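Support request, please re-run this one:
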Amino acid sequence: MIAFSPLFMENDPSLTIEYVIIGVYLVLLIGLGAVFGKFNQDSDDYFKSGCKGTWWLVGMSTFMSGISALTFTGNGGAAFEAGWSILVIYLGNIIGFALAGLFLAAWYRQLRRTTFPEVMRERFGPVTQQVYAYFFLLIFLWAGAVWLWGLGIFTSAVFKIPVGLVIPVLGVVVLVYSTSGGRWAVMATDFVQGMVMIPTTILLAGVCIWKLGGVSGMMERIQSAGLAGDFALIKPAGAFPGDAYTWSWAAAILILQVSQGCSLALSMRYFAVKDGREASKSAWLTCILMALGTALWFIPPMTARILFNDEVMATALSKPAEAAFAVASLNLLPSGLIAVMIIAMFAATMSSMDTGLNVNAAMLVRDCLPPLRARFGRAGAMTPK
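Re-run finished. Output below.
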């Protein structure tokens, strides 16, 4: 059985260099925030990059904001237990982005607004605008807290990095670069984080397939391990608790994910590009990257089920299956790349948090504060037109 904290044990000679790698990465993100803060001349620059974002920058940022540590922990745990069924969730995301690329992204860009509650105001009035703004302020705050707490618990249990270190350090780093640089910094750091996460996860998936003897070898190992039923795309009723992974579950998940991907609440991602054509291209890039990730992200946890099942079940998590992705990383990657994999998991969470923070700031400034200032008689205050 492997030790689950090879990098962070006492007297480990690699401890210093691994912490240095992680520290340099976090300092780089803060530096990017300071650099891109100089691009901001007004609120349009701060909240939507002055509509000057390129399709590849916005597309990468949208892709990165759509994943978090949950992708590799909770959903990775689902792949460990149920195999290919988890792909249904991400198929819905892919379809949603394809529809955005075909129809919606260009239309969203032509709304010419900063926040989606401003769009709601035009159709349904100021009361609806306020309800949506305050509701999503709370939702994004809650989601960020959940992502950060989940990442902290995971890294503590598997890599032995204290929760009390992960949560404040990552929280402060995201807060500093997001607030100092605005939307430009969010997109730039998301791009950098994508350049770390994508190659690292491709490498791990490739090593897993090689270790199993190729794609055909993987299929043979699934059969020989007696996992063909557990890993079937669609399960019979009663195979999993709550009739999960059945045809009815798949249909419901597809409808949910496609509708969420096309919802007006996510239209703000396309406000940062210069025109509808760029918006469509950014949506297609996100679609392609999501398809690539879907094809690769869940190979490591399935490999862990085949090769390292006992090690996964021995981890100190309430749901040990959620450690499957990390266990595969610890077993199959060279020690020098483990810190990079930790950074990749940090990147997945931080890229969701920074986008949520920027969106919250925009709604607070554009949708919440003007009516409050007007109500309490501040001179010159007015609600957005």
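Residues 1-11, 379-385 have pLDDT under 50 and may be disordered. The first helix runs from residue 15 to 36.
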